[in-house]
Amino acid sequence: MKANRYIFWGMTKSTLIHVFLLSVALTCLFPIFWMIRCALMTNETVFVDQAIIPHHLNFGNFAVAWTKGNFAVYLLNSVIYTVSVVTGIVFISSLAAYSFSRLKFPGKNIIFYLFVAAMMIPLPGSFVALFVLMTKLHLVNTRFGYILCMINVGLSMSILLFKTFFDKMPHELEDAARIDGCGKIGIWWNMAMPFARPAIAVIVIFNSLTVWNEYILATLLLGDTNLMPLQRGIMVFQGANSTDYPVLMAGLTMAAIPIIMIYLFMQKHIVKGLSSGEMIG
Amino acid sequence: MDSKAKAASIFKDNLQNFLFVLPALAIFCTFYIYPFYKMINLSFYDWRGIGPMHFIGLENYKELLGDKLWWDSMWHAGYITLIALVFQNPLAFALALACDRQIRMKRFYRVVFFIPPVLSQLVVGLIWNWILNPEMQNGQYIGLLNHYLFAWGLPQLVHNWLGDPKTALTTIAIVNSWQGFGWGFVMFLAGLQTIDKQLYEAAKIDGAGAWKTFTNVTVPMMLPVMLVVMILTILGCMQVFVLILAMVNEGLVNHTDVPVTRIFSAMQNTNRFGYACAEAVIFGMILVCVSFMTKRLSDKAKQV
């Protein structure tokens, strides 16, 4: 009898836990489902048909957003910015981190602590001064200027993460490479980078998220619609089509789906990254 | 090798090593250090973005101290942060506890809870703006929430959630928590999984019940993670901006303003660059103080 009661309680408990978890999961997914659902309706049906699955599916909104809404350009720009910023961050921060970890030069520690301090001090309003600077440098409304600014955003954290990995690299590995005639650059590229592969994955995924979703700097620095990334483009598009909800939702879907896909493919690294970021923080 | 050649080779070596750091340092100095300096510098000037700059000393700061809209915006951000600390983090912790066991679909939950955080604040804001739409067409509410509140016989709850100054900020805070809890969840779960299982065994042998084990093993072991999540929540929520922009746009400005909105509009709408910088400096200092105080507080809590 006692054993039965025990099992009964165990089952009730696990059911309750599942109900709790499932209801939260549903709350997470439903707004996204609703966005996609509305993207598949027309301006006439969207206000009338309140069924969960609409009676007529309409894929025309995506075409409208793609051509009339300029989303082809925005999407391409977002890809250009994300790829170049992330590539830049990986190379620049790994080079610096390798030097901080393994090489010597006067003033090394001071410079390293500058980067660490930058991570600790939030600069919420620095975009004002950054805009002034970019105007002076004539980098407003250029791809190059925006890319440089965004590289800076991810730099400190990436250097720190790379350095923690390079610090763990066994010295024998390096010595062997040096005997084989590898220079410093050779060791960085052939030894250190492959060793830090998990760090690279974390850095790529987190910085991709940041760049893909960035809004404030894109608004300040890129006024030309041909240079705008998706997030900025959506706002322009929303201003022009504020009542055409199905087309707007189609645009949002196009902005959301790529990043959700990248996330689903790389979600393992996000968990790893957050638990290692915690140790740093 | 004579000493001169040796010194030259050491110098060359140092220079090479420094070159590794140079690209990072150059970008960092140009786009972090210089704006940092420029922000403080500009805050002492009256400047319209172009034209002459007038040095006015602490005038911007004096005006800021009496700027009711600015301190209101600070309170709004504080309110959003408070809602996140009181509801979002405990929810994240409860979900992490529920997932930290042999349970089916664990991976599914972990993946799903982190989907809202990967979306941009802009996308999230616009989706919710559509769900919360207050308008009616053909005698039906077009927003999902009001439509179903009406359809399920709760017409007294139908409300212009984002249009009413009384509910707008709370609605934004809830959507913000909806988007943010996944971060805390993943970090809490990772923390829970590092707790040594032997500690639980030992507690069991000592005859501790579930609640005792929770308060005496889980909570103390999780304190460092809780602290990190708390600081990140404060820093993240205080700086929320794009979400609000997407949800209310220009409507209700004085009821949903946050500091970043004020800085942005001082710069974009009224062209007062000096004043915007003074706001940014004060805001940055407040953020640093708050996160520092949180750390001190929790250090004390740990010693007790």
Please provide a written account of the structure.
The complex is a heterodimer of chains A (281) and B (304). Chain A has helices spanning 2-39, 60-67, 71-102, 108-120, 127-136, 143-167, 171-179, 184-195, 197-213, 216-221, 230-240, 245-280. Chain A is mainly α and 281 residues long. Chain A has two domains: 2-39; 70-280, MetI-like (MetI-like fold, Orthogonal Bundle), CATH 1.10.3720.10. Chain A is globular and about 75 Å long. Chain B is mainly α. Chain B has a single domain, classed as MetI-like fold. Chain B contains 14 helices and four strands. In chain B, the strands form two sheets. A two-stranded antiparallel sheet of chain B has the order 1-2. Chain B has a two-stranded antiparallel ribbon with strand order 3-4. In chain B, a hairpin with a 7-residue loop joins strand 1 and strand 2 (54-55). In chain B, helix 6 runs parallel beside helix 11 and helix 10 runs antiparallel to helix 14 (273-303). Chains A and B meet through helix 1, helix 3, helix 4, helix 5 and helix 6 of A and helix 1, helix 3, helix 4, helix 5 and helix 6 of B.
